[in-house]
Amino acid sequence: MIQLPAQEGGKRLVRPINYLSRSSRMNRREGFTLVELLVVIAIIGVLVGLLLPAVQQAREAARRMQCTNSLKQLGLACHSYHDTYDAFPPSWDSRGGWSGLARLLPFIEQANVEAAIDWGTPYTVYQSDGAAANVLKSGTPLPALELDMFKCPSEVNLRPVDASGDGIPDYFPSNYALSHGTFFVYNGGNSGDGAFGPNRYTRIAEFQTDGTSNTMGISEVNAFTLFSSGSRTYDNSAGIPALADMASVISTNVSSSSSNYGHTQWVSGNVLQTGYTAFFTPNTIFNIDGRLQPADFVNNPEGESDVADNPCMAAVTARSFHPGVVNVTFIDGSVSKVTETVDLYVYRAIATRFGGEVVERNKL
C-alpha cells in the first residue's frame, strides 16, 4: 500500500494500487456483446435493403438503354434497306417464308449470314435436319444463330429451340418484331394496315397521311409466348372484335401445358414469330389455366391454303420485361417508350400507316 500526504484533520488516505503488469492489461479483450452484434447486423441488413433496389434500377436502366440502341440500329437498317430497294422489306413472303428481320441482315453487319440464304428456299430447310443445315462453316444451323441485335438484355427466356428433336438447336428467338397493324394481317392478296405486311414492300410515300413519326415500325416482344392458332374463324369485313371476346378466345384455347410458343424463330416471317399487332395494349395478360400470363392468338397463319376464305387475323401483343413499358421504333427511326396504360385508341392509331388519326406522342 502507498501512503498519501496528510490531509485535513491529520488523517492519511490510503489508495490501493493495481499491480497488474502492462502485458496483462493489454491482453484483456474488449468485445461486442451479443446485443451489440445483433444491432450491427440489423443495420447492415437495412443498408443492403436500401441499396439493392437502387442497384437493380441502375442495372435495368442500363439494359433499357442497350435495348433502345438496338432498336435504333434496326430502324436505321430499315431505312438503309429502303434506300437500297426503294421500299421496306415484307414481313413474310410466299416463296420461303423468311422474316423481314432476316432481310435486314446486310444492314446490321451480318452480310455473310445473308449471303448464305436463298430467299426462294423455305427457311425450314436450314434447320438441323434440313438439306441446308451445314450451310455455315461454323456448323451451327443458320436459323439457330444467336444474333445480339435481335436480343433484349432484359429478356429472361432466351434459349435455342430444338424443333427437330435431334438434340441440335434449330432456331433462336427474337425480342423485336415488325408492326402488322391492328388485327387483319393477310388474306392471300391484301395485307393489313401496319407498316409491314406479308408479300408487301411498303414505301415511305404510303406514310404521308399519318406521318413516319406517328407510325410504329418495330417493338419488343417476349420470347416463348404461349399462343392459340386456328381456333376461330374471322371475316375481316366484320371489323375488329370486342376485347372481351378475344380475351375469352385466348383464355379458352391457350393451355399452360401447350408446346406452342411464339417469338422463338427470328428467321420466320409468321406474325407469331416476328410480328405484333395493336389489338391489345402492351403487356396485356390473360387468365390461362387459372393464372395470369402472356398469350397470343392467330386464327390462320400466313401461307395456309384457306387463307383467302379464312384470312390471317392476329392478336399478337407487344411485350417486354421493362417495368410498365415497351420500347418502340417509329418509321422515322426515332425510339420512344409506350406505356402499358396507353389509351387503346391512341395505340391503334400509331399502328396504322394511313388511318388519318391525330396522335400526340406525349400521351404514349
From TrEMBL:
SUPFAM superfamilies: Pili subunits. Residues 56-344 form the DUF1559 domain. Keywords: Membrane, Transmembrane, Transmembrane helix. The chain crosses the membrane at residues 32-55. The keyword Cytoplasm does not apply. It holds the Pfam family SBP_bac_10. The keyword Iron does not apply. It comes from the Bacteria. NCBIfam families: IV_pilin_GFxxxE, pre_pil_HX9DG. This is Prepilin-type cleavage/methylation domain-containing protein.
